[in-house]
Design brief:
By secondary structure, this protein is an alpha+beta fold. It contains eleven helices and 23 strands. The protein has three domains: 163 residues, Sandwich (Immunoglobulin-like); 229 residues, von Willebrand factor, type A domain (Rossmann fold, 3-Layer(aba) Sandwich), CATH 3.40.50; 26 residues, no CATH class. Helix 5 packs parallel to helix 11 and helix 7 runs parallel beside helix 8. InterPro entries: DUF58 (IPR002881), vWFA_dom_sf (IPR036465).
């Protein structure tokens, strides 16, 4: 009996019968009609109960989960239901999804013919990394009578890890191989010159650079021969991710730390595909999660595992400690992308000497964020005095960000200043630009 549930159709029928009894006080001939309808109603309930409960496994269902969730992305969860009854049913599906999603009104209703399967999916978009625990998959089956339902319970417990974003890595890879990214138009990165890493001597074909003609080989073969060079590989690229309190700021449900971690994953994938070595570390009061710069088959998984449980610690980040650890840990000239956030010029000036120290020995790119709320205020037409004040203050903060960029460029430090949602594309573009220009 614990799986028996009364449907609203039964209660609406009783309400109708009750109204009929009320009218029977004024029209006595309605009394017998009300008695008959009430009797039919209870007989229908008994028949409905027998139809649903005489067969033990009337419904079969399973929830098909991905191996892991991709943080900040849409993840499909699939459900397969089969009707084993000899009659069509109406199935109400209530899946007990993880509490992090705060979906308290989850309900999907499907009509399934006898002996048929229905297959559908819904989408979950996690906003934080960690473990997500699913409860039971509940199916409430009703016969065509529709007075009662029988509950079927499947897959009582399941858990999934939510990892840094990985579902778009293939898309970024294809775009990077073409050296182009779409962001309000196509940005094509022009290849400047070539490296001096020799690959082979080949016969000249129209379009080859005549400056690469090998005259010795030409004289020996009596055919025009040219030197062919390949892109310089195995350059080291390190991503330093600030886990201090400034990175807790949320935008569209994700913190700046999560945006940075997702961008680090996307960039690592491109770095490895380009033949370079990807490494990373996180820092706040101390440096943690150090991954040496390598280009091995399991490097991307190693970086993903290191970033899986990274949290902000709400401390002021120690750039002095970062400078010392970088100098000790990275013993070759490398490209360093520092994911952090500076809101004021004073905040930058407190850390500038350490950033200048890093930039002396490495190619440093500081990645920090536009405040999308300020961006909205600046481009909004003010309609009141308060909104004018808000716009002026927003422009002041935006101007201070521009001063930060100028101050960093003064000391040869490159910058990526971007909206959080554009971070992945912008940092990959900066990496490709540095590669194309041979700056490293």
């Amino acid at each position: 009996m614990k799986n028996l549930y009364i449907n609203t159709r039964f209660f609406f029928t009783l309400i109708g019968v009750g109204i009929l009894y009320v009218f029977a006080f004024f029209f006595p001939f309605l009394m017998i009609i009300a008695h008959i309808i009430l009797l039919i109603c209870f007989l229908a309930v008994m028949v409905d109960y027998l139809l649903l409960f005489l067969q033990k496994n009337g419904v079969l269902a399973q929830r098909i989960l991905p191996e892991k969730l991709s943080n900040g992305d849409e993840n499909p969860v699939k459900i397969d239901i089969k009707n084993e009854y000899s009659f069509p049913i109406t199935a109400r599906i209530i899946d007990e999804i993880p509490f992090q999603f705060q979906k308290r009104d989850f309900l999907i209703e499907k009509k399934i013919d006898s002996g048929k399967n229905t297959y559908f999916q819904y989408v979950l978009e996690p906003k934080e990394r960690g473990e997500y625990h699913f409860g039971s998959l509940n199916i409430y089956a009703s016969s065509p009578i529709g007075f009662v339902s029988k509950r079927f319970i499947f897959q009582k417990d399941a858990s999934l890890p939510s990892y840094p974003s990985f579902v778009h890595l293939r898309k970024y890879e294809l775009m990077a191989l073409q050296n182009e990214f779409l962001l309000g138009g196509i940005k094509k990165i022009r290849k400047l010159g070539h490296t001096m890493e020799f690959e082979q001597i080949k016969e000249y074909v129209p379009g080859d650079d005549i400056r690469t003609i090998n005259w010795k080989a030409t004289s020996k073969t009596n055919r025009l021969m040219v030197n062919q060079f390949q892109d310089e590989k195995a350059q080291r690229v390190f991503m330093l991710i600030d886990t201090g309190r400034t990175m807790k700021m949320p935008f569209n449900g994700l913190s700046l730390l999560d945006y940075s971690i997702n961008a680090a994953m996307a960039l690592s994938h491109i770095i490895l595909k380009k033949g370079d070595r990807a490494g990373m570390m996180t820092f706040s009061k101390k440096t943690e999660n150090k991954i040496a710069g390598e280009n091995k088959s399991g490097q991307l998984k190693k970086i993903s595992e290191a970033l899986y449980n990274v949290k902000t610690d709400f401390f002021e980040s120690d750039f002095n400690r970062l400078y010392q650890d970088v100098k000790y840990s990275i013993n070759q000239r490398s490209l360093i992308l520092l994911f952090t956030n500076f809101e004021t010029l004073d905040g930058l000036n407190r850390q500038l000497k350490y950033l200048r120290g890093i930039a002396k020995n490495y190619l440093l790119v500081v990645v920090f964020f536009k405040n999308s709320e300020l961006h909205t205020l600046i481009h909004k037409d003010p309609e009141s005095t308060q909104e004018i004040y808000d716009e002026i203050i927003a422009e002041k903060f935006e101007f201070e960000k521009k001063l930060i960029i100028q101050e960093l460029r003064k000391y040869g430090i490159y910058t990526v200043y971007t909206l959080p949602e554009n971070l992945n594309i912008d940092v990959i573009n900066k990496y490709l630009e540095i590669k194309a220009r041979g700056i490293l």
